[in-house]
UniProtKB/TrEMBL annotation, chain A:
The lineage of its organism: Eukaryota, Metazoa, Chordata, Craniata, Vertebrata. It is found in: Endoplasmic reticulum membrane. This is serine C-palmitoyltransferase. It is a single-pass membrane protein. The keyword 4Fe-4S does not apply. It comes from Sinocyclocheilus grahami. GO terms for biological process: ceramide biosynthetic process; sphingosine biosynthetic process.
From TrEMBL, chain B:
It holds the Pfam family ORMDL. It comes from Sinocyclocheilus grahami. This is ORM1-like protein 2. One of its GO terms (cellular component) is endoplasmic reticulum membrane. Belongs to the ORM family. GO terms for biological process: regulation of ceramide biosynthetic process; sphingolipid metabolic process. It is found in: Membrane. Keywords: Membrane, Transmembrane, Transmembrane helix. The chain crosses the membrane at residues 21-40, 46-64. Coiled coil: none annotated. Plays an essential role in the homeostatic regulation of sphingolipid de novo biosynthesis by modulating the activity of the serine palmitoyltransferase (SPT) in response to ceramide levels. When complexed to SPT, the binding of ceramides to its N-terminus stabilizes a conformation that block SPT substrate entry, hence preventing SPT catalytic activity. Through this mechanism, maintains ceramide levels at sufficient concentrations for the production of complex sphingolipids, but which prevents the accumulation of ceramides to levels that trigger apoptosis.
Length: 563, 155
């Protein structure tokens, strides 16, 4: 039984592995040769299968997605039901002119034509989103650092129009910006270097990369990024979204297979669709699902002709921004090597935020960067700039230089932004002569652990890996989405809340992004406010053991077994 | 908050009936309707059962088989605009767990008890109940997927 608890420590979720030895089937022939098998029986596992999975993971991989309590789910549906009924009522009143209609309508003369808009497609926007619209698109009038200034808005007609009062809400604690290492600042070496660069190069590039827009700064940046990641060469693009959506079509085409995770970002999905390849989706972070898809794909080949696929590309992200989960990279690499597929890793949120040296999820797991065929990432999150990069072998990057849509048609990166990335990257690597980068990395990981631990102890349901700086806090009910955003703003803390249809219908959440710029007292202030609001709105749904860490649990468990 | 920004689910409507707790919520709502009707003093028990059956089937017909499209814009350029919610469920795959549940529940909870027991086999009640049941069972058959009789509710 102690084996079971040990396996729970290593894999916090219910992913069990049976023996890697083959099991003989009914008529003696061997059935499952999968690397990772589904859980079959509840016998305590033997030692040798632990060897196979412990070898891949050098430290415990603890992820939790606590299930929605049933009562909360039922109440959430009732909430949406009431909102729907009121929505129909308000639509009726608007139609019959009892209530003023703020929407775009067709002109009177065109009333008998075929309608331009479908009223029902807008139902959610006008009846649910409009009611709590003041939680989004809040104008910021300072740098989005650890604290920011918000423009105060009032609405005379329930969020249909906003007016600025002229006041500014000062020093709102920023828990929503992707400012993981705190490089969003207007003072310091990065800002000075960027302003010098603006003076020398100007702001605009006025050309695409292939024509006249290739600056020496870009070449410098690319060499630096390649050194940072540990790959042969890299290429930088002006926009992170465009990096994904414009490069995947250059890499795959008809006759190729793309296996993408369920919760991949819109840019990856768009890129996959634009490429024209067959797309198959595997369950989020589920290695059995991925393996099954790979095996089926290789065995059956292309859909009708059954010819072998030209290539198979697995699309995963480093940290999934809505769930806070980290990809199971060691297992993905093991699968990719076994089935000879290619791996495209999108490190938008994890580059600079994970790993002891800040080199992303590959560094976090201690793996070899050359195992990942295409390493993609963005400079928006941890480097305080904009744009994206792709890193890999020299042949790959040379090919992309010629064939990527972004390189051929899109303007290249602006010079001050390039300089900002160069300076911040050198800072993280420690090459600017200070230990500032290392301090920030340590501060971020301390802040993450502290923040998650405190929230967990308070009794909130938090999704995701214990090491990810993205912390989704579950709200569930539609009214609480609006209430949480507004109450937090009253307490001078700015948060990002998300609801249906961006998330599954019952899983609305508030998403916090921990930053290295947050000091311990800022986090304490935020945590106290969250606890207050949590008590007010009754958000503390968690029913797991909250006292102490897992170490205490294991210890007391072993203690009781020694009797 | 737009569809498709956080996950690659093109039409979230397809997954609603599979979410956690929705079957329970549906059953609770039907029971609540029945209890509310039972508390009206001048209605007798057989009438209340028939009324529950009829109102439940009417609501189910309205929400699952009349209302078309999605209340939000989807990134698939409107493939589901002309489909009712029943046809959108699980992207049109037939005989999934939710479909089976929603087919059996009007038969079991409402029809079984009202027709055969509480109305004491009265002819009028039987006709009303069976008619209402048929109106909600026929659209669920796989053969009726996408069928619009007499052009009603086509666009």
């Amino acid at each position: 039984m102690t084996q079971n608890s040990a396996s729970k420590l290593l894999n916090g979720d219910a992913l069990h592995r049976t023996k890697q030895d083959k099991k003989a089937g009914g008529n003696g022939f061997v059935k499952n040769r999968c690397l990772f098998q589904q859980k079959r029986c509840r016998r305590p596992a033997e030692k040798n299968h632990h060897a196979s999975c412990t070898l891949l993971y050098k430290k415990p991989f603890v992820e939790s997605f606590e299930e929605t309590p049933l009562l909360v789910a039922v109440l959430t549906y009732i909430g949406y039901g009431i909102l729907t009924i009121f929505g129909y009522l308000r639509d009726f009143l608007r139609d019959w002119k009892f209530e003023k209609c703020h929407l775009a309508r067709e002109r009177e003369e065109q009333k008998d034509f075929v309608p331009l808009y479908q009223d029902f497609e807008n139902f959610y926007t006008r009846n649910l989103y409009m009611r709590i619209r003041d939680n989004w698109n809040r104008p910021i009038c300072s740098i989005p650092g650890a604290k920011m200034d918000l423009v105060e808005r009032v609405t005379p007609d329930y969020n249909w129009t906003f007016e600025h009062t002229g006041n500014v809400l000062k020093d709102v604690i920023n828990m929503g910006s992707y400012n993981y290492l705190g490089f969003a600042e207007n003072t310091g070496t990065c800002a000075d270097a960027a302003s010098e660069c603006t003076v020398k190069y100007g702001v605009g590039v006025s050309s695409t990369r292939q024509e006249i827009g290739n600056l020496d700064k870009h070449e410098e940046l690319e060499k630096l990024v390649a050194r940072f990641l540990g790959v042969e060469s890299s290429m930088a693009f002006g926009m992170g979204f465009a990096t994904n959506s414009m490069n995947i079509p250059a890499l795959t085409g008809k006759g190729c297979l793309i296996l993408s995770d369920e919760l991949n970002h819109a840019s990856l999905v768009l890129g996959a669709r634009l490429s024209g390849s067959t797309i198959r989706v595997f369950k989020h972070n589920n290695m059995q699902s991925l393996e099954k898809l790979l095996r089926d794909a290789i065995v059956h080949g292309q859909p009708r002709t059954h010819r072998p696929w030209k290539k198979i590309l697995v699309l995963v992200e480093g940290i999934y921004s809505m769930e806070g989960s980290i990809v199971r990279l060691p297992e993905v690499i093991a699968l990719k090597k076994k089935y000879k597929a290619y791996l495209y890793l999108d490190e938008a949120h994890s580059i600079g935020a994970l790993g002891p040296r800040g080199r992303g999820v590959v560094d976090y797991f201690g793996l070899d960067p050359s195992d990942v065929d295409i390493m993609m990432g963005t400079f928006t999150k941890s480097f305080g700039a904009a744009g994206g990069y792709i890193g890999g072998k020299k042949e790959l990057i040379d090919y992309l230089c010629l064939h990527s849509h972004s390189a051929v048609h899109a303007t290249s990166m602006s010079p001050p932004i390039t300089q900002q990335i160069i300076t911040s990257m050198k800072c993280i690597m420690g090459e600017d002569g200070t230990t500032l980068g290392q301090e920030r990395l340590c501060q971020l990981s301390e802040n993450t652990t502290y923040f998650r631990r405190r929230l967990h102890e308070m009794g909130f349901i938090i999704y995701g890996n214990n090491d990810s700086p993205v912390v989704p806090l579950m709200l569930y009910m539609p009214a609480k989405i609006g209430a949480f955003g507004r109450e937090m703003l009253k307490r001078n803390i700015g948060t990002v809340v998300v609801g249906f249809p961006a998330t599954p219908i019952i899983e609305s959440r508030a998403r916090f992004c921990v930053s290295a710029a947050h000091t311990r007292e800022m986090l304490d202030k935020a945590l106290n406010a969250i606890s207050e609001v949590g008590d007010l709105l009754q958000l503390k749904y968690s029913r797991k053991n909250r006292n102490g860490s897992e170490g205490t649990d294991c210890f007391s468990f072993l203690e009781s077994h020694q009797d | 908050m737009n569809v498709g920004v956080a996950h690659s689910e093109v039409n979230p409507n397809t997954r609603v009936m599979n979410s956690r707790g929705i079957w329970l919520a549906y059953l609770l709502l039907t029971t609540a309707l029945h209890v509310v009707l039972l508390s009206i003093p001048f209605l007798s028990v057989p009438v209340v059962w028939t009324l529950t059956n009829v109102i439940h089937n009417l609501a189910m017909y309205l929400f699952l088989h009349t209302v078309k499209g999605t209340p939000f814009e989807t990134p698939d350029q409107g493939k589901a605009r002309l489909l009712t919610h029943w046809e959108q469920m699980d992207y049109g795959v037939q005989f999934t767990a939710s479909r089976k549940f929603l087919t059996i529940s009007p038969i079991d909870t409402c029809e079984h008890k009202t027709c055969y027991f509480y109305t004491k086999y009265d002819t009028a009640h039987f006709v009303v109940n069976t008619g209402s049941l048929l109106s909600v069972l026929l659209p669920k058959l796989p053969q009726f997927h996408g069928v619009r009789l007499f052009g009603i509710n086509k666009y």
